[in-house]
């Protein structure tokens, strides 16, 4: 009985950790997203009140002054010109409303932007590419793509992760609705953003600025983990491919192909930075910035011709023979 309960608890906790969260700004799980949800509700309430007043006046006017049987159509209704009271009312009230909206919005923006990260905060550099995300952990020497591992926040309202946002090409925008509002990634300009996810799990996000053909498939996942799990992940990611005994048998084909010009496999001759770092490819859940789940069949199809799953993406079909394809996939699958 006791064991059953413990098992149920354990299953509950593992399924919660793997849970895919929703992309809904009204279900925030971090401080910046809380502030923005409250602001959105406040603005919605004010605009809803305006809508109700305006709609009620229109309905009243339509009903009260509709044409009735016996109306003399040749006679105009009384024409009113120049009422100071009405002029003042419809000038002053909207100005007051606009000032309230500006004031509240500025306060929320300042509270999110001016939070300074404590020294212990995890720092990540997120670089937008057409059409994927490069994720760098400068303090750990870790580079990955599309899936951002971060620790959950244990102190409310303190940045658990501080993101520096850059772009390699065009303007992209980071948006994980349950964690924070949008922030652009702009070439030659650094933007900053912080997040403090309260619960472990997978937070889904998306590029939120049109950036070309595959903008819609520039997906993003933030994987919030307990600090111990995060540290374990980071120390695995820090390892170079030299430490990986499985690689030696299958590396020749990959190293001989032009894959190495665009992709990095740490500790090998593959030192490209144009495409995602592949050193620990198999630790990621998806391929092609979220278009495919990372299964062996999908990986094979992707390497064979990425243009099928993601037309227009910058990785060409390498026209590999069946043998080469087998060897490349075997190599990639050894990148744990
Ligand atoms: Cu990147 Cu849209």
Explain this structure to me?
The protein has a 5-stranded mixed β-sheet. A 5-stranded mixed β-sheet has the order 4-10-9-6-7. Strands 11-12 form a two-stranded antiparallel sheet. It has helices at residues 2-17, 31-64, 84-113, 227-238, 247-256, 259-262, 296-304, 306-309, 322-333; strands spanning 122-129, 132-137, 142-145, 147-151, 161-167, 172-175, 183-185, 191-195, 201-207, 219-225, 286-287, 292-293. It has 336 residues and is α+β, with helices and mostly antiparallel strands. It contains 9 helices and 12 strands. The radius of gyration is 27 Å and the shape is elongated. 29% of the residues are buried. The longest helix has 34 residues, at 31-64. The chain folds into 2 domains: 14-69 and 81-238, Cupredoxins -  blue copper proteins (Immunoglobulin-like); 245-333, Cupredoxins -  blue copper proteins (Immunoglobulin-like), CATH 2.60.40.420. α5 (247-256) crosses α9 and α7 (296-304) crosses α9. Mean pLDDT is 88; it is low at 1-17. The chain starts with a helix and ends with a helix. The structure holds dinuclear copper ion. Residues 128, 131, 172, 207, 209-211, 215, 218 line the site of dinuclear copper ion.
What is this structure's SSE topology?
Blueprint lengths: L1 H16 L13 H34 L19 H30 L8 E8 L2 E6 L4 E4 L1 E5 L9 E7 L4 E4 L7 E3 L5 E5 L5 E7 L11 E7 L1 H12 L8 H10 L2 H4 L23 E2 L4 E2 L2 H9 L1 H4 L12 H12 L3
Parallel strand pairs: 1-5, 4-10
Antiparallel strand pairs: 1-2, 2-3, 5-8, 6-7, 6-9, 9-10, 11-12
Helix pairs in contact: 2-3, 5-9, 7-9
Bound molecules: dinuclear copper ion.
Dinuclear copper ion binds next to loops.
